[in-house]
Amino acid sequence: MSRQGLIELEAVLAIAARGSFRAAALELGLSTTALSNLIAKVERELGVRLFNRTTRSVSLTDAGRTFVGQVGPAVHEIQEAMAVVRAQQDTPSGTLRINAFATGAREILAPLVLAFLRRYPEVHVDLVTEGRIVDIVAEGFDLGLRTADLVPSDMIAVSLGVPRSFAVVATPSYFDAHGRPRVPPDLFAHQCIRIRLPNGAPYRWHFEKDGNPVQIDVDGPITLDEASLSRIAVLEGVGVGFFMEADVREDIAARRLERVLQDWTPPTVPLCLYYPGRKNPSAAFRAFIGLAREFGKTAI
């Protein structure tokens, strides 16, 4: 069949159901002449007549009845599939795939992603976290989440405006026993939880004050590559940890952990959602971007 095959098949089914070219033409929004031409084209391509036509009646041939019986259910399924897809343009539904780094995902999970799911329960969010930066188009993601300085230049970015900073913390009992660092080099005298980057390299703790950056290659009894594990070690009194403030905010508020060197940890680059320019985005995608923009404005 030609590229217009679905229209041609719908025409055959409409005539078979109505028993009239005129009634079928009205149903399809075509002229009787245009409909007759469509059927003639189908019959030429199939090499058989589908309808017996007289001036007073239209009926299916034996070949026509066989054709309609087999094609009818398939066309109905195609129409239903198209209706489902079109509905996604109006009602948020389907799946959104988001690639993010773990810390960023934790920061937006409750205030943005879960809030979105409560508002649009027919949408499923597939949130994948990994340390490496991926090509979200090649990997089949709708959206990426990274800090603003890591967003590819050919992507559209939506700033989330979330205040972010690092936090140096330990338990109050640890600091009571070992003293509180006043400047970053004081950390050399402390047991610190070392951090391993996704590429295997050790992470240097970053500080800045009055425009002067400082990096400290700390030492300590354990090296970990996941913030949740580091948090456990710090809460157990093993030593001093270096986190995104959001990861230990509740612990600080509950006084399970104490923050130091706060004047050396100024706000950092904000988070951004990003995506390629696209035509005809789904309703779910449009709704998520809209909520993200609202979230970004209120978070500033």
Write a compact overview of the structure shown.
The protein is an alpha/beta fold and about 300 residues long.
Structural features, described:
The structure is a single chain. By secondary structure, this protein is α/β, with parallel strands linked by helices. It has three domains: 5-87, Winged helix-like DNA-binding domain superfamily/Winged helix DNA-binding domain (Arc Repressor Mutant, subunit A, Orthogonal Bundle); 94-163 and 269-299, Periplasmic binding protein-like II (D-Maltodextrin-Binding Protein, domain 2, 3-Layer(aba) Sandwich), CATH 3.40.190.10; 166-264, 3-Layer(aba) Sandwich (D-Maltodextrin-Binding Protein, domain 2). It is 41% helix and 21% strand. α5 links the parallel β3 (94-100) and β4 (123-129). α1 packs across α3 (32-46).
SSE topology sketch:
Elements: H1 5-18, H2 21-28, H3 32-46, E1 51-53, E2 58-60, H4 62-87, E3 94-100, H5 102-119, E4 123-129, E5 143-147, E6 156-159, E7 166-170, H6 172-178, E8 193-195, E9 205-209, E10 212-216, E11 222-224, H7 227-235, E12 241-244, H8 245-253, E13 258-260, E14 271-275, H9 283-299
Parallel strand pairs: 3-4, 3-5, 8-11
Antiparallel strand pairs: 1-2, 5-14, 6-14, 7-12, 7-13, 9-10
Helix pairs in contact: 1-2, 1-3, 1-4, 2-3, 5-9
